[in-house]
Amino acid sequence: MTGCRPSQNHTYTAFNRSPGQMEALIGPVLRFISRAADGPRQTPLQINVMAGSIGAEAYTLASTLLSLRPNIDFQIHCSDLHDENVARCYEGIYSAEEVLATGLPERFFRTTFERENGFYRVKPAIRKRVTFFKADIVTDPLAQLYPPGDILFVQNVLFHLDCSAAHRAFTNALSTAKTHHALFIDGMSLDMRVDLTRQHQLMPLEYKIRAIHQHARRHVPEDWWNYYFGAEPYLFFKADRKRRYSTIFLTTQ
Ligand SMILES: C[S@@+](CC[C@H](N)C(=O)[O-])C[C@H]1O[C@@H](n2cnc3c(N)ncnc32)[C@H](O)[C@@H]1O
User: Collapsing DSSP states into helix, strand and coil, what is residue 227?
Assistant: First the structure.
């Protein structure tokens, strides 16, 4: 299978990497989560981020929720395999290159960062919503390390694992989920996504599936067929199109 080759040292990430996913989060995903019987009415909304690299993904979530859904109480737990990434997450300081690489919207930029000695520091109110720690999503008992999650992010990591490790990591990540949950799962073999999401009775969220998939492809080389982490364009003739190209899944099991 060409889509699976091991390399756990790719740390590429970006702030506001998927604006379409953030729209889905603050709209249909939160509406779905709010309908859960054991949902976040009494307790904070719990978001579990796996393989969070240097923190851009978790901080993007925290900043987006604080700014656009200020009435929602939430907390985020985020882990990564590498100590140096976890240290950078805690520090929350980024270079201009790291912050500005993807042309952030002015509002996001202004509400997320403050300038500090030529660098950009994530604002304290955002930093305090996220707890960081080290974890291997393949081998560590994630259900013991994370609180039960309403929303899980396992993004752009499974395609860096070999096939059996990716299967183990997927199941391990799901073990941290509440019964009624949402899963964000970009960056994996598309065949594997179809198989695993069906096996686990996850339903694709019908929200801008094509646009979100196409936008994600900006972060990988154009000659995608030369890279194991490259992603094919949205192909209308493929079977299971929604399941194949959706990056967001919902379930009540
Ligand atoms: C390409 S980055 C993706 C970061 C972020 N999730 C995103 O989508 O922007 C992949 C991250 O996965 C982490 N990683 C690789 N193997 C891992 C493993 N077995 N357990 C936990 N994290 C892992 C790497 O350290 C890296 O930070």
Answer: coil
